[in-house]
Design brief:
This protein is of the alpha+beta class. The protein is built from 21 helices and 22 strands. The strands form 6 sheets. It has a 5-stranded antiparallel sheet. A 5-stranded mixed sheet has the order 10-11-12-13-14, with helices on both faces. A hairpin with a 4-residue loop joins strand 2 and strand 3. Helix 3 packs antiparallel against helix 11.
Length: 615
Amino acid sequence: MTPLSPLTAAWTRSKPPLLRFLDNCLNEFSAETSGSVADYIPELSKADPAYFGISLATLDGHVYEVGDSRVPFTIQSMSKPFVFALALDLLGAGRVESAIGVEPSGDPFNSIRLNSENHPFNPMVNAGAIACTGLIYDSKGADAFEQIRLALSRFAGRDLAVDEAVYGSESQTGDRNRAIGYLLKTNAVISDNVAGVLDVYFRQCAVLVTARDIAVMAATLANRGVNPVTGEQVLTPYAISRTLSVMTSSGMYDYAGEWIYRIGIPAKSGVGGGILAALPARLGLGSYSPKLDKHGNSVRGIKVCEALSSHYDLHMLNRSDDARNAVIADYDIGKSPSRRVRRPQEREILAAHEQEVRVIELVGTLSLSAVDYVSRRLAGRPRPQFVIFDLHRVTSTTRAGARLVAEAFEELAALNVTVVLSGVRRASKEWDTLREWTAELKNVRDFYLLDTAIEWAEDQIVYRYGGSIDFHETTELAEQPLLEGLGEDELADLASICTIRTYQSGAKILTTGDRADSLFFLRSGAVHVTLPDGVRLATLTAGMAFGEMALLESTRSADVFADMAATAYETPLQAFERFRQQHPHASERIMRNLAQLLADRLIVANAKVDILTST
């Protein structure tokens, strides 16, 4: 086996920057030994204080792990935000919000105190969490805990179990929580069965997780309720956004104000030694280290969060997104037409009215500020007849952005401007978000491929300005651009070696990799040329040639399909070579025409590159 070069070996050992950062945190903060393991629940005191694991999950589903990231521990109070979100979805916001407040208490997590309305201050303290569990218990009865366990499992992306020893220990020593339970019963916040509610609550806190699990759970919160690893929409964006709000103000108990001021990431801690932090639209972090500070938060976990926030400047109120970056390209069809090869009459009409079709390619998040900027940019130039918004680089659409899109489209409809959307699949969540607000609009069309959208808009311009596109028209060899300049005798000799072929709609005419032994002159109908991955290179109508690269290449480099019933002159390459030998002038003319056609294609491709790099 050949030994690897030093550079190759170093490359294979290299780590992504975020993983190196987590490694550094693990190494640096392992030396931190302050704090103490929770012992008010006896079973928790058995945790090894040396354990230290960190995990970070990105919103594209990648999970980084260092240290003891797979060591199981009980979720404890980190269950609270997830159960609150579950209650919002199961029971409705009105029911939950009528029983539980959302204000910070400033008290320790286990304070036996209610607000001025005799309700829990918020769902992150024990009183609010027990009330939240009680609401689910009232609705689901004996199935309440299983509902909670399944929801936690969906957040984690795997089936979670209960640590029975910790559950038993919590149940035996949970008198303070019982006092809270009876206080809630006295004030009609929960039902009569306090013991049943507390049993579910104790089990909920004893669910086993790892640092990796809580990183994925946090990332699901950061991803508007979509688990980035499994792709499942666990709970609604409404429930998630309200949960993150309460985590921001109250997730770290009587340290919450300091936390959000210095670190600025919604978070939740648990006395088992875990901390989860969810930075919306960015990432989820999970850490495990059993030693706690006086507030009941993991000492090392706090340091990891502080380091992550300060090192990468991740405070959620220090965002620098610029709406102007939402537009990656803005042009009319004169600068970048469709890949459809047009006849002279069509080209003349489109050249005279190229500004009637405006194309705006967008990127990133379609937010309120991004849509506002695009609408003002659109209004800064003369009114077109068609505006194509390409969304294939758009990663998400906010509800505010979608609503402003609808309002902008309504204004365009009033001005007789047709909107065309491209790059978004009808089965996608982005489509659902957009259609929620635009379904009733009559001026909106959609095509998945941008080129198809541009081609359709071009066709409308041709029709509106007196042109025609007759796919059933039959053309002769004399009308072929590749054969321009050939005399009548030369064309007659060429026709004698051609065979007319007929193709049904959808038929595959040429296949990538096959031997290139003939070329074709389209006589009627239309065909399209695609790469093997489905990317459309061109749409050809009667009067155009295809397979002409056989003059330069020995194998086919693209597929050709019939868009509709079509006929073509097929010319065997061997016979064509004999024709060229017999007619050297015609041969020279054909190769010049081919060079011009290839140059025209290159000019179009370069124009597209210029558009994308100059916007």
